[in-house]
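Checklist before submission:
- one chain only
- standard amino acids only
- sequence pasted in full

Submission:
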Amino acid sequence: MNLERLRRIWLGPFLILGPATAVVLLSAFVYDWWAYRPDELKHLGPIELLFNYEIETLQNTLGNLAQTVSAVMGVVITVAAIVVQLSATRYTPRVTELFFRERTNLLVLGFFVVTCITAIWVSISVGNGFLPRASVILSVVFSSLSILLIVPYFSYVFDFLDPERIVSHIQDQAIAAARRPRGDVDEAQGRVLDGIEQLADIAVAAVSQQDKIISARAVDALRVLTVKYTETKAAQPAAWFEPGRRVCGNPDFLSMNQEALSDLVRDRVWVEWKVLRQYQAIYNEALASNPDMNYLIAINTRYLGEAILSKGAGPALRLVIKFFNTYMRATLNKRQVRTAYNLMNQYRQLVEAIAVAGHDDLVVEATGYLRYYGQTAHGMDLGFVTETISYDLATLCEVTHRLGSDAHDRLLGALLELDKEAESASQETTLRGVRKAQARLAAFYLERGAEAAARRIHKDMELERAERLISIRDELLSVASKDFWEVIDRGANFDYMEPARKEHLRRFFEWFPTTVRRPTARTEVVPREAESTNTALKAPSGAAADERPVAG
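Returned file contents:
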């Protein structure tokens, strides 16, 4: 417990209630001593009189004192049990285990028990002319402290059962078990496994109750746990990577076929797989009603991938990409266009980081998945998803070209393979967006003096209809603001280009003989985010027109 919590929970109430009780008691007692003490006690001072006990009186008083302490202990235990049970029901059954494992709870409850037993036995021992003065004083002091403890202890209980505090406790215990698997490795694996599942349970329960703060905290805790584990993974003993009895008996692992489980053992990724599997469950739970949670899971999955990448690309990083693909498949099946848009933002950033790290083979592999999901979305009439993927592929082409990566040519090939002949009006709009992304990329190549790459794009587009090419060119040239007019997660307008790059775009379109003419009217262009989102969500039956003539 840090000093701030110690002061707020324990010292604060004691420093208020203790002195306040002493002042009230001593003030009244000193007045009584001064005004009402009998003559035979005139020789005693106020403190001496306070501790001047009589055997007969003490016998009755100590009996009542024992009853009082028992009642206080009963109230404390009852309230704590009710609150703990309510918290366990709402969040996770692990709360009960955490509560009774916490040393502070055991110390306080133990103090109540010791005080109660002491008061009972002291009350019995007083009599027959024997006055155990020290025992009586100790019993009275302990009983007073027991009553004073009620307020700070209740404050501690409610603070301990704060959902975010529970998440932190589970996270810290799982991290400790993963970092130091001393003794029984199977037991340590079980504690890590329990921690992962309990955090996932809290997240799922919070998502179902629309409790965004707690669900977000639990999702973040899973990421922190895994990143901390990644930092010390290399130091783990070999036995750690062999799933023991508790891991193999877990439903998630029990349902796997033997070959898949063997792959996890070989690649040493059972912990990462378990965390990502819980992310998948939370993602699916939130997909219909809580897109912000889906976006948070995508962000944390990217952070996890980057943490793994910092230790070198390997099976664990491929596992992260595999789960990104799984998220995308679930999103497309639910036709959640905006969620796919946000998910792709994180997926692309992870692939960028992989490209910067120089793992070209993994970049090419991930690009193939992006192309596949873009074509799948195209076939499902989810045009905005295909268009988003085209812009993300174009961005990756730019990144790999700047890096001089060997993967660049294959990335460009994936972008050029993304579009197919349109089968409907909405798909026609989608392909316009893909062509725009390709044209913007061609301007980038010309700006950097890579005419050969721009010629590849020109060759792919040379059979396009003239009016379509003219429209694409004019729309791109007309976008003057890099910022979209609404709050969006990416914060940028897909179609915006710097003025210098627009000059290269004009040069690119001059390679098409039928598009040499300049636009005859100024147009106001709806950015592709807005136009494509409306297309995807409203599914218009006619061909989309995203330019409106403006007088002037």
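Reviewer check: DSSP finds 24 helices and two strands in the chain.
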